Amino acid sequence: MKNPLIDLEMKVSDLLDHETGDWNREALDENFFPGDVEIILKKKPVPSVEDFWCWKHNRSGEYTVRSGNWLALHSMLKEEFQEAQMQPSINCLKDSAWHTLTSPKIKMFLWRTLSQIIPVANTLKARGMKVDQLCQHCGLQDETLNHLLFTCDVARQVWALSNFPSPMNGFHPESIFVNFHYLFQMSTNIRVPKDIRCCFPWILWFLWKNRNKLLFEGSEFKAEDIVHKAYDEAAVWFEAQKLDREGEKCDNEPVSSALRRWSKPPRHWVKCNYGYVWNKPAKMLGAAWIVRDHHGDTILHSRRSFADVNSKQEAQLVALRWSLDSLAAHRLDRIIIAGEDATLLKVIGRPKAWPSFTSEFITLRSCLNHFTSWKSKVESRFANRCAFSIAKSAHQLQWGQSYVARGCPQWLSSLFLDDKG
Ligand SMILES: [Zn+2]
Question: In angstroms, what is the span from residue 149 Cα to ligand 1's centroid?
Fold first, then answer.
């Protein structure tokens, strides 16, 4: 806000020009900095509805537990993030922690260890808490993170049993940063077998868990159990990554399955595939729609181009709105609206889940009101290729006038035949 004295009761509707239904430029200039005014102007207002709440931490505008958790975590760790920025010398170590091959939970543990915010005796004391400073396991030295993870006798035994190569002169007695630097370096040493050099995050994690077990339950794991647990969990995690990668590979394989092909609408319905091509530098949009019946025969198709379309989001909206208006003008009904733009098709299918898109929905709702029945369907590019190809031609030829024709264009007849199957 630009003005130090602001009206706390101010609503979005106070910033609108109710005659034009658009933003009141004067009111915006009065209250916001120029950069913010530009951002606001890009968002189409919705003057016909009361102000409503929008959750700004995801695209749809609807609150989700996932985005809530994300925000909670970021707010919680704000101090830590600031501290990290102020300590460039260990930032590269922290960076390595984020890039370590391990689960997110353990990455966070490594990062918190390097940030010295894991609650061991000496960090708690530094925060003014009265605690027994000695290591609960050996009772010989102060409990620091470095002692716990590297130099206490249980840690020494675990590292020795793990076969992880030891530093020439043993782990550094004081500096956890030196020791982490060594671990990160060793983890990239291809002369050491991968399962050994990559197990260190789990070893550190189970040393920490072991310390908590002793503190809260009064018992400890044996050193060899800690090593077994670390290797077992690491193996399970690496196996899961392998499966994930294989899954992704399957998802990305070229589309040949019948599932991704264009499908005919059921009897008594027609299907309208619409497509668009937007050229950012020229701000040009080419759009097309095709209506086919349950035999797969083309009833009508149309194409046209639009100038001065400023964003991809606007292009998507213009293409869909034009298609719907055209279908209504041709008195078509019982329509399946199919396209590649998953967002807008989901918005019209379930507007309450997408409050950020209320303006777009209100625009589209007035078009959809012309139909007694309609459904929406998200298509792959392959299934939508006919509409996409015509949109491309409309863009290239810059057909400013809407062009409607019966049947399908001759030059694409083989694609249409292929779709029909
Ligand atoms: Zn100890």
Answer: 9
Contact between 60 and 366 under an 8 Å Cβ cutoff? The reply is: no
**How long is the chain?**
421
Assign 266 to helix, strand or coil: coil
**Stated pTM of the model:** 0.53
Summarize pLDDT for 117-146 with one digit per residue, the tens.
888 888 787 777 788 889 989 989 999 999
Question: Token digits for 252?
Answer: 């990305």
- The helix (run of H) or strand (run of E) holding residue 385 is helix 385-397
Q: Running DSSP on this structure, what letter comes out for residue 147?
A: I
Q: Is residue 179 within 8 Å of residue 172, measured between CB atoms?
A: yes
CA–CA dist 85, 89 (Å, integer): 10
265 C-alpha to center of ligand 1: Å?
Answer: 72
Q: How confident is the model over 203-220, as pLDDT tens digits?
A: 999 999 999 999 899 999
| pLDDT tens column, 164-173 | 999 988 999 9
The architecture CATH gives domain 263-420: 2-Layer Sandwich (3.30)
Distance of CA 189 from the midpoint of ligand 1 (Å): 29
Domain boundaries, the chain: 12-72, 87-250, 263-420
Cα–Cα dist 415/421, whole Å: 10
Q: For residue 122, how far is its CA from the centre of ligand 1 (angstroms)?
A: 13
208 C-alpha to center of ligand 1: Å?
12
DSSP β-ladder status, 284-292 and 298-306: antiparallel
